[in-house]
Amino acid sequence: MTPFRANRVAAIVLRQLYLMRGSFTRILPLFIWVGIDMVLWGFMTRYLNSVAQPGLDFVPTLLGAVLMWDFFQRVMHGTTTAFFEDVWSRNFLNVFATPLGVSEYVAGLVLTSIVTSLLGLIVMVVLASGCFGLSFLSYGLLVIPFALVLFLFGIALGVFGCAVVLRLGPASEWFIWPIPAIVSPFAGVFYPVATLPAWMQGLAHALPPSYVFEALRTIVRGGAPPLAPLLWSTALALAYVVAACLFFSQVHRRAVRTGLLARYSAESVN
Question: 2: which DSSP letter?
Answer without folding.
Answer: P
